[in-house]
Amino acid sequence: MERNALCWCGSGKKYKKCHMAIEEKMQFHADKGEIVPSRKLLKTPAQIEKIKASAALNTLVLDEVAKNIHAGMSTEEINKIVYDVTTAHGGIPAPLNYEGFPKSVCTSINNEVCHGIPDENHILKEGDIVNVDVSTILDGYFSDASRMFKIGKVSDRAEKLVRVTEECVELGLAAAKPWGHLGDIADAINTHAQKNGYSVVIDIGGHGIGLQFHEEPFVSYVTPKGSEMLLVPGMMFTIEPMINEGSPDFFVDEDNDWTVYTIDDGLSAQIEYMVLITETGVEVLTK
Fold first, then answer.
1. What's the chain's average pLDDT?
2. CA-based nearest residue to 4, from 22, 24, 20
3. Most exposed residue of 39, 100, 169, 237, measured as fewest CB within 10 angstroms of its CB?
4. Over the stretch 75-101, which tens digit does the pLDDT of each residue have?
């Protein structure tokens, strides 16, 4: 762009006072052979404001689940909470009818890695661990986060897995710095998981988000430090490793073509944050 033209991002500033320095730095890294995001992956100020509103509703929904989840309830009751709260605030549950997914939320219990389908016959019981993955569309903008819930008193092995998964996400978050790389996040997560005797699912990862449910880049949690896409201010994506007790391998339920299970019947846990890379660090939008 011409230096004195208004910046493409809609900020109202001249390009030289807005994105010029960022894009010159991106070009410097691209010239060294690094993977850099396209301009379309950098959210504009107006888009960020709208996405943050969606994220606030997503957090509200997860908070409502947290208030009500208990032993003896069905995962379909969780689905109803998510649908009712989301729609009451003008939102749409992003999973509902997404590529044929039949419900408003994913509920994955114990050995279910992800994409568990709520069902009135799936009753939460004492000792279960369950991931509730909520995704929201508000005014056409997307947000996404998940939490692990421990139902009553859980086993020591389940307690440790959930704790270490949370630690992995926090370490990944700490490694997410502007002008670093996605591989820095992956290395922090994978190193801590392996240190504790766990594995990280390889073929399912995080994703860009905001204007669509799933955008580029794919966010791996097993790649080396210093590898993968450059982290540029304006990028938005999820940090959501799936940590398994045993093997990282999995299979998909043949009956519903959605629910993912551990191959060895071990426990699995996942916690998801949605983050924005800023010029000074990283901002958590919802978790």
1. 97
2. 20
3. 100
4. 999 999 999 999 999 999 999 999 999
* Sign of the alpha-carbon torsion through 151, 185, 203, 164: negative
pLDDT at residue 97, rounded to an integer:
97
Which residues neighbour 252 within 8 Å (Cβ) at sequence distance 6 or greater? 258, 259, 260, 261
Q: What is the mean pLDDT of residues 129-152?
A: 98
CB 198 within 8 A of CB 266: no
Both structure tokens of 210: 């905001």
Listed residue (87, 43, 82, 80) closest to 59, CA to CA = 82
The SS3 of residue 45 is: helix
Task: Indicate if the alpha-carbon torsion angle 61, 104, 155, 160 is positive or negative.
Answer: negative
**Which residue, chain included where needed, has tokens 């950098």?**
42
91/69 Cα distance (integer angstroms) = 21
- Indicate the burial class of 16 (C-beta count within 10 angstroms; 0-12, 13-18, 19 or more): middle
Q: Which residue has the tokens 């230096």?
A: 3
44 exposed, middle or buried (CB, 10 Å; 0-12, 13-18, 19+)?
middle
Average pLDDT over residues 2-31: 96
User: Could you say which DSSP state residue 124 is in?
Assistant: -
**Closest C-alpha among 30, 37, 39 to residue 10:** 39
Contact between 86 and 93 under an 8 Å Cβ cutoff? The reply is yes
Token duo for residue 97: 């009818």
Using an 8 Å Cβ cutoff, are 164 and 198 in contact? yes
